[in-house]
């Protein structure tokens, strides 16, 4: 039990640390005096301080030490640029970077990949050299989708991993707590800072019975989404239990955990079981499976009597296939009702495109079951009526289904095999069969179906279902088709019913790894130069921000007093700006362009305090900065809600902002601002917000004695009239105050390193 086992087959510097995990769990169990759920065991087994950590589910903030970090190519850029600016020689924990999001689906796998490598060359060159320099693993374009690669190579039971992508929870299928985060959190872990997470509540989902026929694991989460809605999992971990969990594959569990993101859950997890043993064995990790077995009872399952904050029960015996959508993944309709519901709602009935695969549903089992449906149709002389696409989740899956014939089955059916990448799932789809504005229906085995997500067309009605149901729709070409009850006509006009899908969970001949698409960091990293062209408009090296000058800040203009809701989308818009995620100067041109100016009720139109000229928010901010003038933003309630996007905090700092003063903050944004050396402050008397005029200037007094829990004073200088004071509260702790003084959390870290 005390032997050393590597976390994976690709790295020889990271061991599984069950011994420490279990010691920590025992400390916490004794302190709390109650049995623990499995998710709690993983969390508490990774605490920074198991003795001193306050633990109350839904209340406390846990400081954690995750085992590893996974980043996808779009979010990795700024995370790595920030990490580099700390001047550390290598990452503190194992990190991998995956090239999957930037590959557009146009004509098919190989050609699309070549084009993407060309278009994104500078990003890939940067990621490949930066990962080599700082000791990270790099998965090249074509390797597959981050979550599939993590499942195949890195996930193991009892581990805690963070990933800069919302579907990171996919790895819960191998009994791991895998949590999607923003780049700033990834930088913390890369730099050896403890990572903070609000102690989640635990939602128990009890599975009983066994699925049969057309029902698949996807239907469990589709049904659950219908019960909880897209917000039902917020602040919670979903932990599955009950005898039903032992009746399906680990990759099926991965699908369920993946889509836990659609109910807003922090993550989802299954306890260690035989299906995970089988999957670990099949992916060459039998040693890990054996090692985990030794800890199965004490560490890798819930304690007897563990209590959940709520429990939902699903009976697999009676579960039918679900089709969720359009426009939201929680609009769940069982297949038996779909015909009526579709007609009632006037949804377009012709299924234009069926898309299978993606990180959610591209296991060997998924592909085999979908292929069995296709084969059955083929024996009756039928091909796909709809356009049909197949997105393998990884090169290993692609190579294995190419070897075993499923790929050929799909292409003979009329399917197009796309690159091993996100493609249409994230809108990287050059769709040609309809025009923008055409009302139409598509069905996919993906996870998200928000308006315009797949093809940029707000009139596309996108539904999510299992791969086998998606395939059945592609054969029938009609949303009213229920393969469980309805017949089709064969090539001679005779009626027949499709047979329920069949397919093994794991390839009998083992997995074929396919092309080697992994780049390990070199042994000698000293000669590697990180490639960033100074002319690039997509990438820019970061310079450390200046330290605080040690003085109170006086007479600062208000850049904008924003009215109403100010989300991270208002602060740093997505869409076309995503391209500049690695270029702080360029992306800063979107700062607050979505926020409404209280003075004139307009977006992106503010007055320069000294010249009186109206201009865009980023331009005005940059002018102040270039004139050496600090500025503040005034905001309302829950400022910065939405995503964990760190750009929303980097941009105001880059543009010379000093303080963001609001009625309240969304917590992640508030922490992100602190990390970048800004002052997020709150009106201790919220009525002060209304008294402030966008023309006023602001002093912030008391900074030299800034201390946890001690208010600062804001002195407001109206254009006409006497100055007035109002107290400002804050949530800085002692460590965070040091970040402010140093100019940023990373500066603080770099200073500590210099000694
Ligand atoms: Fe995200 Fe879709 Fe890519 Fe999965 S396939 S990582 S859901 S974009």
UniProtKB/TrEMBL annotation:
Ranges for domain Aconitase A/isopropylmalate dehydratase small subunit swivel: 556-685
BP GO annotations: tricarboxylic acid cycle
UniProt pathway: Carbohydrate metabolism; tricarboxylic acid cycle; isocitrate from oxaloacetate: step 2/2
Compartments in which it is found: Mitochondrion
Coiled-coil boundaries: none
Sorted UniProt keywords: 4Fe-4S, Iron, Iron-sulfur, Lyase, Metal-binding, Mitochondrion, Transit peptide, Tricarboxylic acid cycle
Catalytic activity line of the entry: citrate = D-threo-isocitrate
Keyword Iron (UniProt): yes
CC cofactor note: Binds 1 [4Fe-4S] cluster per subunit.
Highest taxon in the source lineage: Eukaryota
Enzyme Commission number: 4.2.1.-
GO cellular component term, pick one: cytosol
First-level EC class: lyase
Family to which the UniProt record says this protein belongs: Belongs to the aconitase/IPM isomerase family.
Descriptive protein name: Aconitate hydratase, mitochondrial
Organism: Kluyveromyces dobzhanskii CBS 2104
Lineage: Eukaryota, Fungi, Dikarya, Ascomycota, Saccharomycotina
